[in-house]
Amino acid sequence: MLMKSKSYNILLYAILLMVTALFTVMDEKTFIVASHDTYENYMSMDPGYSSARNLSDSGGYSEYQNIFSKLISMLTKAPETIGYKFSQEQSGGIKDIGIIINFLNYEKILNDRTKAIEVGFLKNPSEVPGKIVFEGKTYKAKIRLKGDLGDHWLGNTRLSLRVRLKNGETIFGVNKFSIHKPRARQYPYEHAFQDSLRQAGNIGAAHDFAKITVNGESWGVMNVEENISKQFLEKERLKDSLVFRFSDDKKWLQYGRSFDNTYSEYRYSDSRLISTVAKQNKYLDDDLWRSRYTYVLERRLEKKHSELYAIEPHLRAFFASLLWNNQHTLSNSNSRYYFNPYLLQLEPITTDQGMFGGFSEDLENVLDKIHLTETYKQVFSGLKRNKLEKYYANSKILDPDDVETQLNKFNSYFPLDMYKEAGVLSKNSNIIEKNKQVIFDWISGIKIENTSEELTIPMPSDLQASYFQDHVHARHYDDGKILLFNLLPDKVNIDRVVFDDGSVIAGGFSIPGFVSGEYDPYVLQTQLIGYQDKKIRVYSSYKGNERSILAYPTMMSKGLYNPLIKRTMDEFPPFVHRVDDFWEIIPGDWVVNQPLIVDGNLRINQGTNLKFLPESYLIVKGSLNIIGSEFSPVTMDAVDGGWKGIYVISQGGSETIFKSVIIKNTTGLNDGLLALTGGVNIYGGAVLINDLALEGSSAEDALNIINAKLHIEKLTVRGTVSDGFDCDYCTGQISQSSFEEIGGDGLDFSGSKVELGMLSFKSVKDKGVSVGEASSVSIKNSHIQSVGVGIAVKDGSLATAENVIIEDYELFAAMTYSKKNHYNQFSSLEMVGSTVDGDNPFLRQVNTLLVVDDKEILSQEVDVDNLYSSGVMKK
Fold first, then answer.
1. Is residue 53 part of a domain?
2. What Cα–Cα distance (Å) separates residue 283 from each residue in 277, 278, 475, 675?
């Protein structure tokens, strides 16, 4: 072993001497590429550490390490590396991913790398077909090179790749993912930051590791990062929705790196104008999503638009980055924004955080040097001081102890990495806590002014004008309007506007330059009504330089009303008045003839009977307490036919209480941008129900509760067109409740952990109890009869049934199966002491578990698509 260690040291010293010699004869670019080639080929051997930097970094060591200092670290660790290579526990438990790309297609990826090296950035990489081999199964995939800058592709191996599995397939629960060398994702700092921030309640990137081979060649241990997708959102306990990115990096990446003496006032890649949506074409096929897309893009052009952003997750992200003393993750390049369909607001999705570091100067100086994006300026400008202090108290700044655990989470994969300590964060946390008022003063001083900036802007030179990639930004609306935004402060000529068929719609005019701080478009009215995506091109010229740009996808001219925007007091009807910190509806018989939106807490007492017109509804942004009595229940019904129902936004731990309440004939709350599935909808907080009857609902769900703690007794759901109670991401108990004459599922759980007892289901067309999306449900002492399916457990969910009677079912009494293959955990149902009639009561799909009184039901192949395409489960 000693001889081998000496040989290994000699080899590394030889490499060091060779690198030094090469440096003296090569040009800088060739030397950099060659050194990356050498380093990444060595790291492909899985030497037991994630990067040379992590051999000596004990946590927040931010001093720059050049190639020579890294080589010295590698030399110092050489004996341990050799010992690791001869050990029997290399990267224990790590998964293997094989990538297969044929020669010609792999050449395309390498050609993209060559072009990127030449220009200094990656542009328009080719997506090629390939295959992924994982756990003995081969998946078809689309693969491309990824990464804006050279840390992703300078080496000739361990390239960053983006992978998309075809046909919706997944490996370890992921359909779309990226592969990076650990240091290209700032391991372990990015991983620890995002994991800790996610635990605090934010949306963040999810990371894992695997041993990668490409066409049989080992690339060593690499980071696997899940890309944002519908499956990603679902695992984050979020409803499918738009995910925005603001700006496109072209100004700093392509324009800035391609030319010298660039023009600083150029609005190329301007984050107020430029926006993209993940899977844009898919979402824009739907009018509702298109209207929400339009709403976000239009609001971001307004001088003040703080209401567009959810405050708490943005503050959590900011305070976490302040603790880290690193705002890299907050930049437009590294942030995405999830449009919450329940709040009609954007929530940040942070990625790519760098190393943390200590404060080297007074916190006031640190704050003054922070560059805030437009988003965070808007969030801060809309905060009042008292609310800021409240939000700070609830922002859950990352716990350094928890961060330290996350920093060392993958140490078994990289045992030679130096253990990372979080002492720097502890010091930062103490400084932040002691200087809260300084932070509050700084945030309170951020204002968005209404007046335009009176600035004298120098015009671009002729040479600078020749560099411009685009002159205008164009947006088309379904009423025929085309909005042209000048990207320059100088007049630009619009030579022609051309439709898809080649016809010229307009041209031969000029539009004025922008005014600093303003985003006022030139409006061109045309006859191009309806959706005209990718069909309108604008040709422009400036100082003899001709350019063209494709107009953005068609935007909506109507339907952009946001009912959650605060209403003023004088809009309330006379039977609503203020009592202490509550609004209250005066007992009596009242007709609600328009939407009633309460920004605050609302109380409705016994002796109150409300009748709603068809377009009316009740929205409460706070706590809703409806307290009737056994002999005088509160009733809510339609004047005639149906009404839209109730929506309660009760975040922050507030309670929603229904006691002795009857709600009839809801149709579902849809108005403008808001589209909810339930007749009664509750988002967040705690929900206490004791004697609530929901009758005659034609909504998709008679009751839909999301992200709440439940304590429900005596809930009756009767006579619904679709589902009875849809429970998403909730915890708690439901007991002594009944579901009758239900057109869909009686109880439908997604991502929830709930105990059920003493329930009754009768005449339910689909499933009595549907347990899905990684839920955990126990059901006891209940009776299920006259149903399509008694209990169905699917998609990584766990359920138990004790002393449950299931009879008179059409399909099966109990089923376990998988509908969504991105859930790794087996679905499982264990039944004990239950009574089930029929000759063939159970269905267990392969790779699920169904146990009845300690006896496993035989598994079989199941065509799940066929289950949902016909019969009682047809959707």
1. yes
2. 9, 9, 18, 15
Measured CA angle at 863 (ends 861, 867), to 5 deg: 130
* Token pair for 769: 């109890």
| Residues of the chain where predicted confidence (pLDDT) is lower than 70 | 1-26, 62-65, 88-92, 395-396, 450-455, 566-570, 875
Spatial CB neighbours of 258, under 8 Å, sequence gap ≥ 6 = 119, 467
Question: Could you report the per-residue pLDDT of 537-586, keeping only the tens digit for each?
Answer: 999 999 999 999 999 999 999 889 999 986 555 578 999 999 888 899 99
User: What is the separation, in whole angstroms, between the first and last Cα of the chain?
Assistant: 66
Query: In whole angstroms, what is the distance from residue 607 CA to residue 634 CA?
Result: 6
Q: Is position 51 within any domain?
A: yes
What is the domain range of residue 29? 2-86
Predicted confidence (pLDDT) per residue in 134-169, tens digit? 999 999 999 999 999 999 999 999 999 999 999 888
Domains in the chain, number: 1
Classify residue 524 as exposed, middle or buried by CB count within 10 Å of its CB (0-12, 13-18, 19+): buried
What are the CA-CA distances from residue 765 to residues 331, 742, 756, 835 (Å)?
A: 50, 6, 20, 20
Please indicate, yes or no, if residue 634 is contained in any of the structural domains.
no
Q: Note the residue count of the chain.
A: 875
- Pairing of β 849-852 and β 828-832: parallel
Q: How many whole angstroms separate alpha carbon 780 and alpha carbon 137?
A: 40
User: Is 7 domain-assigned?
Assistant: yes
CA angle in degrees (0–180, nearest 5) for 48-190-394: 140
Give all strands (DSSP E) within 57-216, no chain letters. Answer: 95-100, 128-134, 137-145, 161-165, 176-180, 203-204, 207-214
3-state secondary structure of 799: strand
